[in-house]
Automatic annotation (TrEMBL):
Belongs to the GatB/GatE family. GatB subfamily. Its EC number is 6.3.5.-. InterPro entries: Asn/Gln-tRNA_amidoTrfase_suB/E, Asn/Gln-tRNA_Trfase_suB/E_cat, Asn/Gln_amidotransferase, Asn/Gln_tRNA_amidoTrase-B-like, GatB, GatB_C_1, GatB_Yqey_C_2, Gln-tRNA_amidoTrfase_suB_CS. Residues 357-517 form the Asn/Gln amidotransferase domain. This is Aspartyl/glutamyl-tRNA(Asn/Gln) amidotransferase subunit B. Keywords: ATP-binding, Ligase, Nucleotide-binding, Protein biosynthesis. It catalyses: L-glutamyl-tRNA(Gln) + L-glutamine + ATP + H2O = L-glutaminyl-tRNA(Gln) + L-glutamate + ADP + phosphate + H(+); L-aspartyl-tRNA(Asn) + L-glutamine + ATP + H2O = L-asparaginyl-tRNA(Asn) + L-glutamate + ADP + phosphate + 2 H(+). Allows the formation of correctly charged Asn-tRNA(Asn) or Gln-tRNA(Gln) through the transamidation of misacylated Asp-tRNA(Asn) or Glu-tRNA(Gln) in organisms which lack either or both of asparaginyl-tRNA or glutaminyl-tRNA synthetases. The reaction takes place in the presence of glutamine and ATP through an activated phospho-Asp-tRNA(Asn) or phospho-Glu-tRNA(Gln). Heterotrimer of A, B and C subunits. SMART domains: GatB_Yqey. It comes from Paracoccus pacificus. PROSITE patterns: GATB.
Amino acid sequence: MLDHLSYTPPAPKVIQGAREDWELVIGLEVHAQVSSNAKLFSGASTAFGSEPNNNVAFVDAAMPGMLPVINEFCVAQAVKTGLGIKAAINLTSAFDRKNYFYPDLPQGYQISQLYHPIVGEGEVIVDMGPGIARRVRIERIHLEQDAGKSIHDMDPNMSFVDLNRTGVALMEIVSRPDIRGPEEAAAYVAKLRQIMRYLGTCDGNMQNGNLRADVNVSVCRPGDYEKYQETQDFSHLGTRCEIKNMNSLRFIQQAIDYEARRQIAILEDGGTVTQETRLYDPDRGETRSMRSKEEAQDYRYFPDPDLLPLEIEQAWVDGIAADMPELPDEKKARFVKELGLSEYDAGVLTAELENAAYFEGVISVAEAARLHDAGKYSSAFDNKLAANWVINELFGRLNKEGLTVETSPVGAGQLGGIIDLIAKGDISGKIAKDLFEIVWTEGGDPAEIVDARGMKQVTDLGAIEAAVDEIIAANPAQVEKAKANPKLAGWFVGQVLKATGGKANPAAVNELVAKKLGL
């Protein structure tokens, strides 16, 4: 995690109203589906895409006499997520019944945690640029069961219910109102997603609804937020409205921007913003009212009589902590410090877990090859060269083809082999691009392809010098131009490379051309 003194918070987003300036205040409740093969209180499968009502146990269907049994693995996943955001882990927590009519939750209430959540206060550092980051405080993470899905477009007269998702474990991650703009909100959700994917506690698939956010938006006049921070008195902030079930980073930004301007228009017309739950319509680009916002007492929470308080031991938590993987901020810092990468390159390579693993595979394969050949060449392996190849050549091609590193035709070992050949001086950068294309389309071992097709770079200075002498002798007029303007020496370099089929060592060619022309 970044040191709190090493970054500057970004300025809040200021929106110009018709009469005055306004600032945004945003808090998010992110619902993350726990990565688990079974549901929170039953052994039913959580597999996505199953036939409707196929993954339903008796307890999920609220059959009489069926009692919930806590899934220990889901609890461990919540604890691991809490540790990942440096949060307090509560050794005692409890489940409550949230009484609210869900047409797709058969028991008529949701089992959740209101008063005693499994995870307490933590924080997430959201990078917004070099040296700029937002610290977002996490209030809590609690476990709860998901509802099912109502389907309204299969019949003009009836609605259908799919209970497959009913009872699936969710982690609700509740932030403080620390976010000050649409871009920050999207970056915060992306950072949470990144952390959980590294931890393996949520797959982050927003398209399938496995990660979605309720966005609380309000506006205030400049200076009022600072008063709130000093006093923690919410009266300094405007009335908030909650935008439900956002599963797109782009739509989150659009919805926040629209909702803020809607509230500003109401306030500047002398009206009052009503606290309510709203939905975002991406087709119209606007939010619309869903229902008045309920307060906690409206849900008539009470302890679930079927579930004892959840008590865990510190030793169990310590065991989970001991097995924690390297988190994205830590990996990024290591890439910068130990591998000598730039902040930008390290950020790109660690943005997705699979990309980071691929890059580490590239450098491990190439470094192993270099160590194996110790004494045969002195060039140290260049991590920056590997980063450039992964980011520019590989990622660029994958994006163009609509592929990912998991479906890449070029494996980490193959790309590492190409990097190793460059580092040894066996091939030039130009030949490497030709080799990459061959491996991409045909596969194969890069070293074997180079040997079989005669692609090795010419490093024999005698052969290169003969080619340079021949080009210079054949172009006396160009020689005089190059002597008058040394920049034109590049023409000779190009001709020599062309004459040698691109196999001549470019550095050696440049040096010899300059020497022969007296530059």
